[in-house]
Amino acid sequence: QVALSDGVHKVEFEHGTTTGKRVIRVDGKEIRRNDWLFRLLGKEHFIIGKHNCIINIDANSGFAYEYTLEIDGKPLQKFRENRSKISRTWTLKLDGEEYRIVLEKDTLDIWLNGKRIEADRDFADEGTETYFTITTAKANHDAVVKAVSTKHHRFGIYHSLIVDGTEIPEATE
Known about the structure:
Elements: E1 2-4, E2 7-9, E3 11-15, E4 22-26, E5 29-34, E6 42-48, E7 51-59, E8 65-71, E9 74-75, H1 76-86, E10 87-94, E11 97-104, E12 109-112, E13 115-117, E14 120-123, E15 127-135, E16 140-149, E17 157-163, E18 166-168
Antiparallel strand pairs: 1-2, 3-4, 4-5, 6-7, 7-8, 8-9, 10-11, 11-12, 12-13, 14-15, 15-16, 16-17, 17-18
């Protein structure tokens, strides 16, 4: 599972250890296939959105193989750690529907269910407020992402999402 601004993507890799066959699927859709390769080891390059990805195939002991995923040149775990520093994610249910909201802290872009949306920004006494609307089949819901200084250099800025006056807890992805 790879969490990006446009959603959480499922990456699957199939490796035929006798034929060298390699199949990559992202979100259930086959994006690359090699049915016969003489090399059993190596790298497979592909793209998810604007992110460059590599699956490394290395020999382990005996006839076992080890597979690692790199995104933008970083191992998956390191990419996830960096991602948590540059974005904030919230998930909530409104009018019976699931919503995923992502704030990209470097660009201040807001993503709603995988689509970047327009938002209005205002400067407040202690930070910024980014206003947008979540439209469901039943109603429009007012939302604001507040960025407030913690006044402590170690902790930086605290980001919160408030929908219809209720603060939404941050998601753990």
